[in-house]
Specification:
By secondary structure, the chain is an alpha/beta fold. The protein has three domains: about 15-75, OB fold (Dihydrolipoamide Acetyltransferase, E2P), CATH 2.40.50; about 100-125 and about 290-455, Rossmann fold, CATH 3.40.50.150; about 135-275, OB fold (Dihydrolipoamide Acetyltransferase, E2P) (Beta Barrel), CATH 2.40.50.1070. The protein contains ten helices and 20 strands. The strands form four sheets. A seven-stranded mixed beta sheet has the order 16-15-14-17-18-20-19, with helices on both faces. A six-stranded mixed beta sheet has the order 7-6-8-9-10-11, with helices on one face. The chain has a five-stranded mixed β-barrel with strand order 1-2-3-5-4. The longest helix is centred in the first third of the chain and has 18 residues, at about 95-110. The chain binds S-adenosyl-L-homocysteine.
């Protein structure tokens, strides 16, 4: 094969016509078939680009000047959009975002799952795709002797100090971050210093129930002690009566992981509550809870529709978290079994079943990939299985256990189209057929896609 050399050089300025977008949201333009990825360029645009990196098979460029703008280009409302990296596509109209996400799902269904004809529906979008997040975890630092909070500048650990709001965040959480920072600063509580691994306050996490307006604040510190803890708690809770829980989490390791292992309630309850549809949920600090409440409701309704359970059905909900999907299913099914790896989430799930008077849901702590084969060996043969794994998708042992259990239907909820497609292929080869796929936009302004797929057994 002829040795290929890149048709461009580093630091060269070129004009590119953009045709496509990567999963990260970079525009793709080609020179003699050689792709160059350029952040913030949109398909259909023509722009002057500086080549910043040249690899063997692809390069990277920086947008210098747009010569021909896409009609779908919009002004990003966030002042720090180009620094932050938390959102990738605020410069794209919402309609284009939805279309692009649908295409992305169609592509992986073809390329990875080899399912050319499976219906991928239009993405269910939001009427108002801003301020949807119910949870924030923000780093704390110091600048000129004052506490600062802000997300990290892209690909760095420098805090963006001029960030006073986040346009995808619930306003109440923005205000709570600001309040904690202001009061902690007044009390001279030191920020964590990442370079020297000293200091105290590392992150402030805030979660507010959209329906209940109950707020939990989690203070994540390096130290076991928080100086002036009582004054901090007093001022926060007296000023903001919607705060129902203040939690202290200790993380004394040099790590990018936000939360440490030790968690203590320092004021109020261990939980906050929220409702989705008719179901009420207690949520503790370590538990996963979907971050976009109105879209979560649409996602769960779709999962429930696909599961199509009747009162005779036995259902498994694997990766069940605090039992959200399980309890929706339990309203219809004879019995639901949930499995989840985080013990706190399982105790939340048990409490949530009680809170809602549901006696037909049982929850187990464990790795789904170990518990499912064990259930199979115990003779548990569910009619329907729902899975909702993290980004890396399902473990093979779990997929095998599902195929062995021979449920009539499998409902696969996923936050990563590529691993979903990989797993659908395995299930297809194991005797299931993908009937349809429904993407739901849980993360507007970002490249993330959430989706739910329905599979049926071939003989059904
Ligand atoms: N269905 C829930 C949670 C989905 S998030 C909801 O919609 O709220 C995925 C969940 O899988 C998380 O709660 C995470 O703790 C859990 N998890 C991750 N790896 C796991 C494993 N190997 N076995 C079981 N649960 C796991």
């Amino acid at each position: 094969m002829a040795k290929r050399t890149a048709p461009v050089k580093k630091n060269e300025t070129i004009t590119l016509q953009f045709e496509d977008l990567t999963h990260e949201g970079n525009g793709v333009g080609k020179i003699d078939g050689y792709p160059i990825f350029v952040p913030y360029a949109l398909p259909g645009e023509k722009a002057e680009v500086k080549v910043v990196k040249v690899n063997k098979n692809f390069g990277f460029g920086k947008l210098l000047e747009i010569k021909q703008a896409s009609p779908e280009r919009v002004e990003p409302p966030c002042d720090v959009f180009y620094k932050c990296g938390g959102c990738q596509i605020q410069h794209m109209s919402y309609n284009m975002q939805l279309e692009m996400k649908q295409n992305q799902v169609k592509n992986v269904m073809k390329k990875i799952a080899h399912l050319d004809d499976v219906p991928v529906h239009s993405v269910i979008g939001m009427e108002d795709p801003w301020r949807y997040r119910n949870k924030v975890a923000i780093p704390v630092g110091e600048k000129d002797g004052e506490l600062i909070t802000g997300f990290y500048r892209m690909r760095s650990h420098d805090i963006i100090s001029d960030m006073d709001t986040c346009v995808v965040q619930d306003e109440v959480n923005d205000r709570m971050v600001e309040a904690v920072r202001r009061i902690a600063d007044k009390l001279a509580i030191p920020a964590y210093d990442e370079k020297n691994d000293c200091g105290v306050l590392r992150h402030i996490m805030v979660r507010t129930g959209r329906e209940t307006y109950e707020t939990m604040i989690v203070l994540i510190t390096r130290t076991k002690k928080i100086p002036h803890k009582e004054e901090l708690v007093k001022e926060l809770t007296e000023t903001y009566p919607h705060i129902k829980s203040i939690i202290h989490n200790i993380n004394n390791r040099k790590t990018n992981v936000i939360m440490g292992k030790e968690t203590n309630v320092i004021w109020g309850e261990k939980y906050i509550y929220d409702t989705i549809g008719d179901v009420r949920f207690a949520i503790s600090s370590n538990s996963f809870y979907q971050i976009n409440p109105p879209q979560t409701k649409k996602l769960y309704e779709k999962a429930l529709e696909y599961a199509n359970v009747s009162s005779d059905d036995i259902v498994i909900d694997a990766y069940c978290g605090i039992g959200t999907i399980s309890l929706f299913l339990a309203q219809k099914a004879k019995k639901v079994y949930g499995v989840e790896i985080v013990p706190e989430a399982v105790s939340d799930a048990k409490l949530n079943a009680k809170l809602n008077g549901m006696t037909n849901a049982e929850f187990f702590v464990g790795e789904a990939e170990k518990v499912m084969p064990w259930w199979k060996s115990q003779g548990l043969n569910p009619d329907v299985i729902v899975v909702d794994p993290p980004r890396k998708g399902c473990d093979e042992a779990l997929l095998e256990a599902m195929i062995d259990m021979q449920p009539y239907r499998i409902v696969y909820v996923s936050c990563n189209p590529s691993t979903l497609a990989r797993d659908l292929r395995i299930l297809e080869d194991g005797g299931y057929r993908t009937k349809e796929v429904q993407p739901v936009d849980m993360f507007p302004q970002s490249m993330h896609v959430e989706l739910v797929a329905l599979m049926s057994r071939v003989d059904e």
